[in-house]
Amino acid sequence: MTSFLVKVNSGLLTTEKVTIGVILGVMALLLTLGVAFRYLLGAPFVWSESVSKLLIVWLTFVGTSVAFAEKQHITVDSVVSAMPSSVRSVVHTLVLLISIAILGTMAFLGYEYCQTVVSSTSPILGISLAWFAYAMPLFFIFSAFHLIANAIVERSFNAFETDMENV
């Protein structure tokens, strides 16, 4: 089971990283073309700003999921590291469970939000505003999956940092 979980987690992480690269590439291309068309040809892209906003929203949530997968979120652990190791384990487990609960709640609320904006459209792009919001529930679910997968595979509930004592 863990080898399957590792493959799925790794495949998802790779897909997310490729998605980040594509988003950044498209944003750079849009910026370059936008400047060229505005200043060299005198015909600006009126839609490039809206597309850039859409891409930034997606980049934020994809990046958040990658950070969960790679345990790169910032933590303040000075109090926890001063605790005995048995207490630290309990605290790490509680933090993991609370984080998963928060991500699940945010995924649900993100989905609810998508339902409220699905009938509204972007005036410039002509697409549903839900496309801006779909990243929220999707990548909150992926973030929770990464946390759960890391906990199962590593047999550790230390969700946000590597154990510096063993480095």
TrEMBL record:
Q: InterPro entries under this entry?
A: DctQ, TRAP_DctQ
Q: Where in the cell is it found?
A: Cell inner membrane
Q: Where are the transmembrane segments?
A: 20-39, 51-69, 90-111, 131-153
Write down the superkingdom of origin. Bacteria
Tripartite ATP-independent periplasmic transporters DctQ component domain span: 27-152
Q: Which topology term describes how it sits in the membrane?
A: Multi-pass membrane protein
Subunit comment? The complex comprises the extracytoplasmic solute receptor protein and the two transmembrane proteins.
Q: What is this protein called?
A: TRAP transporter small permease protein
